[in-house]
Design brief:
globular, 69% helix, 2 domains, single chain, mainly alpha
Length: 145
């Protein structure tokens, strides 16, 4: 096996590890938790199934980690175990509120209402994110001037 193939295998195993933890933690939660996650992320339950099943290659996007931990009410032990596994799988992406604060950054979370149309909810979330990126770019540009 080549080094690149071994790296992909290791990465896949690391992703599978945190997804296994997440799946286990979700199984301990009341019914309806997956639906609440889907609504909060503006997606369908099938996406939640994909990001929580170690057999699927779909990784959990970093921007959803905090929301999922909040919705699922992770215990401190669950939080530590999950974040350690997530960081191992995604060392370049794993930035969470406590880490951002120590780097002089701030993470804002905006709660969106549950729209009847998940596509509409995703569009609204995307528009808010785009607006935020533009405002940050403008503020950064003005700060350097």
């Amino acid at each position: 096996m080549t080094d690149a193939a071994e790296d992909r295998t290791d990465a896949g195993q690391a992703v599978g590890a945190y997804k296994s933890l997440l799946k286990t933690f979700l199984e301990r939660r009341p019914s309806g938790t997956r639906q609440r996650i889907a609504e909060a992320l503006g997606t369908h339950k099938s996406f939640v199934s994909q990001i929580t099943n170690p057999n699927y290659r779909v990784p959990l996007p970093a921007q959803h980690v905090a929301s999922i931990m909040k919705i699922c009410h992770f215990s401190p032990e669950e939080r530590r175990a999950f974040l350690a596994a997530y960081r191992k799988a995604h060392p370049q992406q794993a930035v969470f509120p406590e880490e951002a604060a120590s780097a002089g950054r701030r993470i804002l979370q905006i709660e969106l209402p549950a729209f009847d149309d998940p596509k509409r909810q995703a569009e609204v979330a995307e528009a808010i994110e785009e607006l935020a990126r533009r405002m940050i770019a403008l503020a950064s540009k003005n700060e350097r001037s």
